[in-house]
Amino acid sequence: MTLNITIDWTLDGIIRLGWFTMDDVDPAAPSPAFEHDLESLSNRLRGEYPDPASAGPRNGPARTLYRAVGIDPTKHRPSSEALLRRVLSGKPLYRVNTVVDAANFWSLGAALPVGLYDADHLDGSILASLGGEGEGYEGIGKGWINLERRLMLRDEAGPFGNPSSDSWRARVRDETRRILFVIFAPASVGTEEMQRLTGEAEPGMVRHTGGTVVDQGVAQVRD
After folding, report:
1. Measured between alpha carbons, how far apart are the two ends of the chain, in Å?
2. Among 210, 192, 183, 198, which residue's Cα sits nearest to residue 78?
């Protein structure tokens, strides 16, 4: 599975995207290692940050990303920060399926938002851009998501993802076998650092989903 993922020129020097694709994942299959890994990470984070307010510096890069595209991160929290707040408040992470849970686990550990999509429900080239007037999509359990002037991913069928809430169309379901994993970061995260982050995310996804990484990259700016 080869995807063409680019960044609109208007976001040059503002955002950075790392991505990889996987085949042969099984969202319905349990991961024997997941509960142990999640408990270990959660305990470490609770030891480092006694409450959500103390984790401000950790959430800095994700908040920088949001502010860079004109979004107030205190009103629309990055998904990574929302996950961390749940853990530090003593609440369990939401559970969906093995693949989604594994992506949330990585996002929690890296403090960066990720997008996870069923690649068989994506159509053609993918572009990261700001949404236009009236653009949006049906979110996962959240109704209509307004994307006007907000960072989003679109394919040839329209918008399908952003760093806070993904679309119903491209959701990972139990029958999903091919996925696209996207890391959202500010441009201050350089290309080499994004390559490192992407390389760190892959083994965990393989460990917990049983899939195989097929392709990977750091999105370039579209001229």
Report:
1. 24
2. 183
| Percent over 70 (pLDDT), the chain | 99
User: Is the distance from CB of 175 to CB of 24 less than 8 angstroms?
Assistant: no
What CA–CA distance (Å, rounded) separates 34 from 16? 28
Q: What is the DSSP letter of 83?
A: H
DSSP character at residue 51: S
> pLDDT tens digit string along 38-68?
999 999 999 999 999 999 999 999 999 999 9
Count CB-CB contacts under 10 A for residue 76.
14
Order the strands of the 126-130 sheet from edge to edge: 158-161, 151-155, 126-130, 5-7, 220-221
Contacts of 61 (CB under 8 A, 6+ apart): 111, 112, 185, 186, 188, 189
Sort 130 into a burial class: Cβ within 10 Å, 0-12 / 13-18 / 19+: middle
| Contact between 10 and 129 (Cβ < 8 Å) | yes
What is the Cα–Cα distance from 109 to 172, expressed in whole angstroms?
21
Edge-to-edge, what's the strand order for the sheet holding 178-186?
Answer: 114-118, 178-186, 15-23, 212-218
Backbone angles phi, psi at 179, to 5 degrees: -130, 155
SS3 content of the chain, % helix, strand, coil (to 5): 35, 25, 40
Angle subtended at Cα 189 by Cα 184 and Cα 191, rounded to the nearest 5 degrees: 95
3-state SS string over 168-190?
Answer: CCCCCCCCCCEEEEEEEEECCCC
